[in-house]
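Here is one chain, start to finish.
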Amino acid sequence: MSFLKRSVQYCLFAIAKLSLAHHEPYVVVVSGSTNRQTVKEAIGKKLGEAFTVRVSPKNFNAELGVPMSIVDIPSGGGSFLGWFSVLIRALRYAIGGKREDVCIAEFAVSRPRDMRYLLRLLRPDCVVLTDLTSEYLSAFGTLETKAKEYEDLLMRIKANGLAVLNQDDARICALHAGVSVVKTTYGLAGDALYRANHITSNEHGTSFYVHAPGLPVQHAHIISFGKSAIYAYLAAEAVATHATTHWKKT
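Its structure:
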């Protein structure tokens, strides 16, 4: 790693931590092997109905990108002066006035201990896990080693926080066994707490019925296709329920 990158990474990390401590947003982390972007955008759209929301840009999901998304800055490229200007902007954001109520971050892990670094930056109020596949498995050796990264994430959820797990992915559901955290589930399986059924599609999109705890069955229509879009809708409903009942605007 170059001296410039190390220096920028250190400064960004410190400024992003300062911003989170100063503004105290409701923090959502979306992680998993696939479908992170779709889920993240669906959550941002849903929470945007009640809160001001910052959603991390596409691919801002690793050691540089996550802090950059928290303080709303672009890349400074390979230029020292470019990064100096960007870091000044980041500091102004961190110590400035009222910011977004909600911060939605995406965590991607491609090597062991990636998650630990990101979790030094923040503690989430809510974590959404999409799935656990063999992506980047060569770096981890086994799926069990990769699963440990997501267990570390679940263990960092705040005391009154929530884990939102994909009930249709057996590996994701198994993560909860060794972690003491409140959870809810989403999916198409009959035992998912946020569940979709009677799914139909046409040229205008996808329609389905949504079952959620304590609520009447609702009809939903999205201008998207495929299970990934339905998963994103259900996860967003679960996060919105938690955010509106466990977090208040300051």
